[in-house]
Amino acid sequence: MADLYPYLKELENKKILGINPPVFDFAYFDLWAKPLGLLYILQWLRDRGNQVKLIDCIYEARDRAKTFGRYAPRRRKMEKPAPYRDIPRNYWHFGLNEEEFISRLEGLEKPDVILLTATMTYWYGGVFWCIEHLRRVFPGVPILLGGIYARLCPDHALLSGADHVQTGPFPIEAPYPAMDLYKDPEYGISITSWGCPMRCDYCASNILCPTFSQRGVDEVVGEMEFQLLSGSMTDIAFYDDALLVNRDEHFYPICEQIEKRFSHIRFHTPNGLHVRRLDEKCSEYIYRTGIRTIRLSLESVDPEVQKESSSKVSRHQYQRGVENLLKAGYHHEDLETYVLAGLPGQSVEGIKETIAFVKDLGARVRIAQFSPIPGTSLYNQALKKVPALAEEPLLHNNTVYSSWVSKEIPPEELQDLKDFSRQ
Ligand code: SF4
């Protein structure tokens, strides 16, 4: 089944269990990540008279508190899968372990349907692991798999053992995500628009969401209000890819409402902001709204990489954007800037030059290592050099791709770049 919508639409008075699986990876950071699509679908099913429950294997294994409502999940070392065998780094299972997961499942009434989500393509190990346990505890219950992995690697996702895989977009018909399924969540999530009007050669935004659309201001504010009813939230993260498009009609009215109603909440933009739109007025709005974490999309000052990045910001525009944010009240250390590394054919000199440029302006550098995402034009380019990408999503992992898979940047040089960016 490629489209689960007609099947789910028929469900009524059913017990539905949603699952966000554990993550198997070299590293995991909570960038205010919640399974947004799954939460919308659970809310929609609940609105249609079903009972819904959620097991979030990451959230339920919260361990050390981090800044702004985030937690690092518990982890345990695990054996590396074969494609990573020669990589000299530890590999981890982040989230509920086997015993905890099984005990959570056994504590529930048998569901009628299980919905499982998966984010990164190279996190499929956690999905397969969940399905194996679900089959043992709840034999015969249909398991439906969706999420970004299923969308981008549908053939591979069919190997998961799920009964059905959602391979296309799913219409969102709920007014808000079912965040109340979390007990005392520390942060909320907000997506004010779907997709992105730009077309960067390495990004899947317009594959996953081909049309850019913005939600109504009242809808966005109502959704925040609903989430804040929990009383436990101190922070909200924007999930938008293009938050600042059409600022006058969209972003500014949202900011005005936030200032009036939610001034006690801190906001964050973990996805990069389009820096060319950061004029004085926009920077002031961002500051007054209480956006505490700012990430800026620069990617590179190298003209070749800028072309691959939709030429979305020039050196001059970036410099002006930084100046405007500083004038609005931010400090240099607040301004973290994404610099891309490891694109096919990208020169190390160009990466160094970009890091030096950002540092000269006093902003912080965050190196974003390239991940070849199926369906993008740079993935197709990467595929020529590494044909195995087509069969093995573990090879898409940005932590290892540029140094160990494509060998675009030797590991020592990548480490030097990271050290240089932190100095
Ligand atoms: S601007 Fe950002 S979200 Fe939009 S296509 Fe480019 S990388 Fe993707």
Structure description:
By secondary structure, the protein is an alpha/beta fold. The protein has 2 domains: 1-183, Response regulator (Rossmann fold, 3-Layer(aba) Sandwich); 197-423, Alpha-Beta Barrel (TIM Barrel), CATH 3.20.20. The protein is 34% helix and 20% strand. It contains 16 helices and 18 strands. It has helices at 5-9, 36-47, 98-106, 124-137, 148-152, 154-157, 205-208, 217-228, 251-261, 280-288, 303-308, 315-328, 348-360, 377-385, 401-405, 411-422, and strands spanning 15-20, 23-25, 51-56, 62-65, 71-73, 75-77, 92-94, 113-118, 143-147, 164-165, 187-190, 193-194, 213-214, 235-238, 266-274, 291-299, 335-341, 364-369. It has a 6-stranded parallel β-sheet. Strand 14 (235-238), helix 9 and strand 15 form a beta-alpha-beta unit. Helix 8 (217-228) packs parallel to helix 9. The longest helix is centred in the first third of the chain and has 14 residues, at 124-137. The model has no long low-confidence stretch (mean pLDDT 95). Iron/sulfur cluster binds next to loops.
